[in-house]
Amino acid sequence: MGILFFLIGMVGSWAFAEEKGPMGEYVSREEYDSLKKRFETLQAQVEDLVHKKTEPEAKATAKAEVQVAKADETSGDEEELSYLDSEVERLSGLIAANRSGSTKYLLTGYGYADYTYPEKGDSTFNAAFNPIFLWKVNDKFLFTAEVEFELEDGSTATSLEIAEIHYFVNDWLTIRAGKFLTPLSTFKEHHHPAWINKLPDQPLFAEGDAQLVPESSLGVQLTGAFNVMCRRLNYAFWVSNGPKLITDAGSAGQLDFNNFPDINDSKAIGGRLGFFPIPELELAYSILWGKVGADGTAFDGIDALLQDVSLSFVKHFEKIKGKLELRGEYVWSIVGHSSAYGGGINIPDNKRAGAYGLCV
Q1: Is the peptide bond before 261 cis (omega within 30 degrees of 0)?
Q2: What is the DSSP secondary structure assignment for residue 209, as one 8-state letter?
Q3: Which of 111, 144, 155, 289 has a CA between 20 and 30 Å from the CA of residue 342?
Q4: What does the pLDDT average to over 43-49?
Q5: Measuring CA to CA, which residue among 103, 109, 155, 157 is closest to residue 132?
Q6: Are 60 and 183 in the same domain?
Q7: Predicted confidence band at 23 (pLDDT cuts at 50, 70, 90)?
Q8: SS3 state at 206
Q9: 178 and 289, same structural domain?
């Protein structure tokens, strides 16, 4: 009887020391513990990918680890590795269920500080900050917004520069809706930010009481570019709230381009066409028409016609180790006339023009 118990104990100890493999082969306890430890490490790494990686990255990384394990193990480990494959698939599904989405966000922008010393007036320091938000919903939709914080009249002024949705229809057509930079003026659309503008200030036609062109418009725009006979053309067509006619004494006949909300049911219509005879040179013409008088007033029938021509040449020259930039723009405005019956206010024909040139 003692011998029988001794043999049973020996068999039990041997069975505990070794595990039977799936193919009838045996692996040692050390090999089993090593495989188990590696599996636990792999499982922890894959679970960590749930919080750090997207599904394709996590799946590729986990499978790469599995392939390394397969290369090192004998055929007796196939069942364990198959289980690891199933765990990778399960965790990949968990990653997909917990992903925050495919959208992408970017916060960028610019800021500046400057010092001005005008010929007539007081010198002063100034500063501003313009954060820009970009949100790519998918390959078709993009949302952009820019907010400006600047010092004005002893306080901080906040304004919404742009807030628009882009829908990319194809390679030559994009639909933009919201508040966008008006394509009428090349300077206002492309060169007015402080970090781009190389002038001491903006041109007279671009700001202040003498402003002839809007900076932004609220509406919808079709824009894009295409080639015609190996020459590039770009275009923009838009419908937006029109500018407002100023009827105050002293400024009567001028336009206020703060077009929210609109003052009449008639919307402004604009278009721009740019032509590149050579890659470095763009010639552009743009036009904007709209009613500017408020509905139901004596100024109801007044309209405005704005036109703009511009030239832009930019070329890099190796001899000067830099680029030469030439820019020029001419804009003219025609506002109709009217008499306010009983009000005593007369809006005369108002024809104004402005221009600027730059060589750097």
Answers
A1: yes
A2: G
A3: 289
A4: 67
A5: 109
A6: no
A7: very low
A8: helix
A9: yes
Note whether 84 and 181 are same-domain residues.
Answer: no
Query: What mean pLDDT is predicted for residues 216-242?
Result: 94
Which pairs count as long-range contacts for 114-118, CB under 8 Å and 24+ apart, including other chains?
A: 114/194, 116/200, 116/201
Query: What is the residue type of 153?
Result: D
Distance (Å, rounded) from C-alpha 64 to C-alpha 67?
5
DSSP string, 299-310: TTT-EEEEEEEE
Contact indicator for 142, 104 with CB cutoff of 8 Å: no
Q: Are strands 244-245 and 255-256 parallel, antiparallel or unpaired?
A: antiparallel
Last residue of a domain, one of 58, 83, 98: 98
Nearest C-alpha neighbor of 227 from the set 180, 272, 154, 171: 171
- What does residue 158 show for φ and ψ, rounded to 5 degrees? -115, 130
Q: What range does the domain containing 56 cover?
A: 15-98
The span from the CA of 328 to the CA of 199, in Å, is 12
Calculate the CA 78 to chain-centre distance.
50
Q: What b-and-e string marks burial along 142-151, b requiring 16 or more CB atoms within 10 Å of the CB?
A: bbbbbbbeee
- Looking at the chain, which runs of residues are DSSP E strands? 18-20, 26-28, 104-116, 124-136, 141-152, 155-170, 173-181, 216-228, 231-240, 244-245, 255-256, 268-278, 281-291, 303-317, 322-335, 338-339, 346-347, 350-359
Burial class (CB in 10 A: 0-12, 13-18, 19+), 77: buried
Residue 107 in domain:
no
One domain, residues 225 and 329 = yes
pTM here is 0.68
